[in-house]
Design goal:
It contains seven helices and ten strands. By secondary structure, it is an alpha/beta fold.
Amino acid sequence: MDRQILILGALREEINQIRRRMTVKGQFKAGHADVWSGNWEGANIVLARTGMGKNCALSAFDEILKTVRPSLVLSIGYAGGLGFKLKIGDLVIPDSIIELSSNNSYVNKHAVSQQQLVLLEKLDFPKNILIHRGTLITVNQVICDSVVKKELGSLYNALAVDMETSALIAHATQKKIPFISIRSISDTVDQSLVDVSSFISNDGEVSKIKAGWYIATHPNMVKKFISFRDQSQKATFNLTEFTGVVVRSFDCI
């Protein structure tokens, strides 16, 4: 059986550049997840949009594993910066992932394979992309308030925060599948965001209708949405470039 890389992203925006560049040979649904199989950067890949949050990501991952047997899982996506040195588009390669509960208290900690991290460091990545290694926090809700981001970063000595990685690494470890998380900073520690929790649909996707209605009824927030869109585009570009190097170097990892 040919070796395959499974690439998991929560949102369409996180994976859309890979989707456009890959050669698609098949497409299917895995529960609520959209999944494409094909080739990219000389490797066989399966690309999936899982939806936001631990439950959506884990459900999609488990469903995909019923038909796909990956040799490596790459969990990619956006993260909020918790470290003051991190800028928009910087990448975080977690060497440990801390899971928090709904009230942001400690639940569990997961370690990433040091062997894979050492191999990653040897790859030739674009010099214009800053890469950081450290702790990633996984939470149950979007962290919008910059004050809360600063508190979490200080309390757990963490670089970034997301909503999926702890569930995915736990399941990959259970299934004995090599796992790497790649996170691109979409908002910095000193930046407060619009609370998008009410925009998220049951499949873990941000509803464009709900977001559009919010903008229409809160015109003073338009600049914030435009700014975050531009930041997300930069984060996606750097994320895609970095992931492409990892996929091209698949045999070395």
